[in-house]
Amino acid sequence: MRIEGATPPTVEPQQETAWAFLVATFFGAGRLKPAPGSWASAAAVLLWAAFAWAFHPAPWLLALALGCGITLALVLGIPAATIAERESGRHDPGFVVIDEVVGQWTSLLFCPFDWRYALLAFVLFRAIDIIKPVPARQLERLPGGWGILFDDVAAGLYALGIVSLTRFWF
Fold this sequence. Notes:
- By secondary structure, the protein is mainly alpha-helical.
- It has a domain at 59-169.
- It contains seven helices and no strands.
- The protein has helices spanning 18-24, 36-55, 59-88, 98-107, 115-131, 136-139, 144-169.
- It is globular.
- The N and C termini lie far apart (69 Å).
- Mean pLDDT is 91; it is low at 8-12.
């Protein structure tokens, strides 16, 4: 029952843990509208392209660097996504996009430095991430950052497989 003229109690917003939100939003890409996940995937492709250009004489070095990037993003991203989810009070909030970065980099892991493969990996990853085939949908149910990130790892692995098969067929 509301009393006329009474003000509702104020709730202090929880302060954001700076490092966690920086990682979870991939340095702010998750704050871009519309479709923050697509912006983050595009940023991941651009970073991959920069590394691919730098390491193009040694493709194995590119794969090693990307593997290290994926590992680092997972190690930092799981706790960051967990904290961002808890502090925002929302399950798998849309501004958490480190999962898209990890998934996109996974889809590009063995791609040659060629815009056609990068575009194919981008489109496939985004489509598979949206559709969420088995087991990606089930991985979403993992707690906190684990579920947020590992469904995108699964989508990235699907896209990686399709891109790799495409390379051998064409």
